[in-house]
Amino acid sequence: MTERANAGALKLVVSYDGAGFAGSQRQLGQRTVQEELERALSILAGDSGQRVPVVLAGRTDAGVHAAGQVASATDIRPDLAEARLVRAINAQLEPDCAVVSVERVDAKFHARFDAKWREYRFRIWSGAAQPLVRDRTWQRRGSLDLDTMSDAAARLIGRHDFASFAGGGEGMPWSPRQSTERGTIRTVMISEIRQLAPWWGYAPDGTLIEHRIVADGFLPRMVRNIAGALVSIGQGRQASEWIDALLEGRNRALAGETAPPQGLTLWRVGYENDSPDDGV
Amino acid sequence: MTERANAGALKLVVSYDGAGFAGSQRQLGQRTVQEELERALSILAGDSGQRVPVVLAGRTDAGVHAAGQVASATDIRPDLAEARLVRAINAQLEPDCAVVSVERVDAKFHARFDAKWREYRFRIWSGAAQPLVRDRTWQRRGSLDLDTMSDAAARLIGRHDFASFAGGGEGMPWSPRQSTERGTIRTVMISEIRQLAPWWGYAPDGTLIEHRIVADGFLPRMVRNIAGALVSIGQGRQASEWIDALLEGRNRALAGETAPPQGLTLWRVGYENDSPDDGV
């Protein structure tokens, strides 16, 4: 379709339950978010078998969720109104992945390169086992010291070398493709610990904790490695100053456990004129 | 074990994800909550193959969740402290069902007959598809009028004949075993509509609505049939006075759709001295 060359772009906000995906990025023989979106858009585009490429703003690992992942693609159906397009795309997707909204944007829009910041949230439940949120939290027995965790979280704010928090965990090692001229330096704008009200029921014995972090970019496994360190601090096994030592040390071997993926959600991606404080 | 005859009873608060169960009550050849709990307690009791009977306070259908279901059973392990007993039972359960707390109570305690009230919450998401809560809400496109729904919900408060809201829906018809001397009359203490903050992510386009209902007892499918009626009212297809007509009419055929089970959670069960306003 020749008109495609001059078509505008689509900015898609995408939500998914990470449990059924081998991650966000296309991988041979695996079910991924990118692949599912490309398949859905290709069907709607109606070109016999031609793949519509999709770019995702944030790379999420297997099991990691997204509430506000952003994807960019060529506008495959300029004839459909935005709300109609959302429904048409979702009709081609499985229930564990959905387009939340579609916006028509400039043809040069690139979901990844144009992103100014990404927000992730990691949730921890410390208390008795909770089946209703086993797929959405890291469940830990024993209590956590929120004040110390808050102090530790705040130490991550600013421009730092996050090498101690890059990679690790089971499966995929830190991929060299992730290296850029920035190396392992990133700027964290917000890093805070909050106690949330349990939303799944009457839960008097336990605490739901969220680490909210906003940065210009994240290294692989960075948020989960930070969550592991914050829990060690909350348990009193390390002091909050340990964060400074880890940032200083620039060595993954220094930090502790990688938290499991199901507690993590890619919350939102910000572009020019977006603020992480909107709609919080 | 002869000491069992004089043993006290256990009051267990139980939480489960309804998706994997054919309901709460034992049914031949089906996976049920009662069966799972009895199996776990029997293993801990250590009697060769003898079943430890468990009574549940509220009957939940297939797919309906529980945050604070209550079960009673003989104290099978007086040697274990309560916190230890919780962990020992949970070690025998699958991750979709867990004991939240155990309390040692009088041997005459009966989870069902001693219950003074039950609290259910039904959650509705009106907005774009949301994969992260597809198993916890009834998802509806289009907006709902909360004020009219609130007015309608309040009309359920008091002692009424709920025959119009009993039974129906796919599968199991209203069982005659559910009939008691009360017939279809129940007393509703609290019935209110609330808007909740979405807990799964940045979700600017849509509304999360909860119907909270507390009553001395519920008829089969009653909360889901009420949710179906409240949504019809919220959509403007019926006026809130329709609730009065349904209560008056005492005929299931008058009311509308039965809402699907995944939006419903048995929130809490109250006994002597418990108040539904505790911990809300």
Brief summary:
By secondary structure, chain A is α+β, with helices and mostly antiparallel strands. The first copy, chain A, is built from 5 helices and 10 strands.
Number of strands of chain A: 10
Architecture of the largest domain in chain A, CATH level 2? 2-Layer Sandwich
Largest interface: A-B, 36 and 36 residues
Major beta sheet summary of chain A: 10 strands, mixed
Order of helices and strands of chain A: EHEEHEEEHEEEHHE
How much is the radius of gyration of chain A in Å? Answer: 20 Å
What's the mean pLDDT score of chain A? 91
Please tell me about this protein's structure.
- Two copies of one chain form a homodimer.
- With 280 residues, chain A is an alpha+beta fold.
- Chain A has two domains: 2-105, Pseudouridine synthase I, catalytic domain, N-terminal subdomain (Alpha-Beta Plaits), CATH 3.30.70.580; 117-270, Alpha-Beta Plaits, CATH 3.30.70.660.
- Chain A contains five helices and ten strands, in the order βαββαβββαβββααβ.
- The first copy, chain A, has helices at residues 33-45, 82-90, 146-154, 222-234, 242-249, and strands at 9-16, 55-56, 65-74, 97-105, 117-127, 138-140, 158-161, 185-196, 206-215, 264-270.
- In chain A, strands 1, 2, 3, 4, 5, 6, 7, 8, 9 and 10 form a ten-stranded mixed sheet that branches.
- In chain A, helix 3 packs across helix 4.
- Residues 1-5 and 170-179 of chain A have low confidence and may be disordered.
- Chains A and B meet through strand 3, strand 4 and strand 10 of A and strand 3, strand 4 and strand 10 of B.
